[in-house]
Amino acid sequence: MSDQVILSVDHVSIMYKVGDFKDIGLKEFVMRKLTHTYMSREFWAVNDVTFQLEKGDMLGIIGSNGAGKSTLLKAISNVMVPTKGRVKANGKVVALLELASGFDGELTVQENAYLRGAMLGYTRAFMDQKYDEIIAFAELQEFQDRPFRQLSSGMKSRIAFSIASLVQPDILILDEVLSVGDGAFKVKSEAKMREIIQNGATTILVSHSLDQIQQLCNKVLWMETGKLIEFGETEGICKNYIKFLSTKQNIQRQKQ
Amino acid sequence: MFRRLKEYQFLLEELTKRDFRKKYKRTVLGVFWSVLSPLLTLFVMKLVFTNFFGRNTEFYTTYLFAGNLIFSYFRESTTLGMSALMNNADIFSKINIPKYMFVLSSNVSSLINFMVTLVVFFVFAAIDGITFSWRFLVLIYPTVCLLIFNVGVGLILSAMYVFFRDTQYLYSVFTLLLMYMSAIFYQVTSFPVNVQRLFLLNPVYVFIKYFRVIVIDGNIPSIAFNLLPLFWAAAAMLIGGLIYKKNNQRFMYYV
């Protein structure tokens, strides 16, 4: 592995079991075991994916819904350990996955901000110092002491983004977050992200907007049903993907 | 281990704060509920059982209160611990933080409740005519053991709860049965000696008895008896820790 390689994903597979006892409960599990009708299916959400990123790369991940993109990101951000294979990241990974989830509706905005900061591994001193900045960036000064559930979903994403983007990561993972908030905030958040990227972060971006990916990314990874279809230069793969999408649409139209 | 705890101290504080706020949100009496509910139980038990069991028991109010104090702490902290992991699935499936933190934080808030109730317990003991002595300081030892024991049981239950949702129903039945077997309102001396020994297999009874020996009898328990709380605490923590170590990555697949 050369010094330049900052992230290496090596034959990563992630399997979910479907229909085992977590779905059917203890009684049913015992009954089926006893009657020898117990079965569980394996579902490979990510199947043998291998790629490497170098410092400064900007990777776009594309693919249909359910292709395993988000699951792959979970493995990269170390939330999930792959069933097979391994992920090696050199440096600090910050993942902005489904931003607005994991907050507590009953706590105030300020309490939630501190809680989230603690979860992301910040210190109290750091939060004390940055709190005003966070609230100002999210433009939520008037809402500080309101319960979190009273915020609109755009506001929730704004505060989440403001907290998570405080530190300079080596690898930044963005799952459909470029569309955070209203127009004005979008401009601001994009500027902030560009700043992080320009400071040398390797970035992974999941998006359904091909335009965005063609604009921003120098590499693309295309996944379908858990498998890696193509990985490499942006332009060629995007062309193939567009072709794939139009054939898919044609097939669907013919079926109708 | 301690360095890691230090590292996550901020997280633990914030999670505990959250648990506390959530528990007492929009309640008029707030924290006093945690004192009031054992007091009400105590009151009813005193009313009902004094005629049956209270006649031959000295300091029956203190006797009952010691039982209720320990048992309700055990039940509350393990029941909260059980759901701690599941309730935070939203968080640990998005952010990489140590999962045992949720069980720890729920235990901290139960511990605070226990401490508040403990103060009330001493007030009642004083009213009941108990003489206070330096021996009461020894209570720190079983309290620490009980805390560790509760964390351990919480870890075990929270893992089971992720894998089997039936755990919560089974456990509520189990705690009900355990309550009747913990000699909260009766004396074990009415049983044959062999059966009395069997009670020591019940960890909750061990902790209750420890408190009673110190507070009511005014004695320090024997060395052999002193080993029991330590044994139960170590056993629960060891099993819980091993389960977490083994399944830490599997939880994700079940939430």
How would you describe the overall organization of this protein?
Chain A has helices at residues 21-34, 69-76, 109-119, 124-138, 153-164, 183-198, 210-216, 234-255, and strands at 5-18, 41-54, 58-62, 84-89, 93-96, 171-175, 202-206, 219-224, 227-233. Chain A is 41% helix and 26% strand. Chain A is α/β, with parallel strands linked by helices and 256 residues long. Chain A is built from eight helices and nine strands. Chain B has one domain (2-254). Chain B is 75% helix and 0% strand. The interface between A and B is medium-sized, with 32 and 26 residues.
Summarize the structure.
With 256 residues, chain A is α/β, with parallel strands linked by helices.
Q: Write the CATH fold name of the largest domain in chain A.
A: Rossmann fold
Helix vs. strand class of chain B: mainly alpha
Computed CA radius of gyration of chain A, to the nearest angstrom: 21 Å
Find the count of extended strands of chain B (DSSP E, 2+ residues): 0
Write the layout of secondary structure elements.
The complex is a heterodimer of chains A (256) and B (255).
Chain A (H helix, E strand, L loop, with lengths): L4 E14 L2 H14 L6 E14 L3 E5 L6 H8 L7 E6 L3 E4 L12 H11 L4 H15 L14 H12 L6 E5 L7 H16 L3 E5 L3 H7 L2 E6 L2 E7 H22 L1
Parallel strand pairs in A: 3-7, 3-8, 5-6, 6-7
Antiparallel strand pairs in A: 1-2, 1-4, 8-9
Chain B lengths: L1 H6 L1 H15 L8 H22 L6 H28 L1 H4 L7 H28 L12 H24 L3 H14 L12 H6 L4 H15 L5 H25 L3 H4 L1
Helix pairs in contact in B: 2-6, 3-4, 4-6, 4-7, 4-8, 4-10, 6-7, 7-11, 10-11
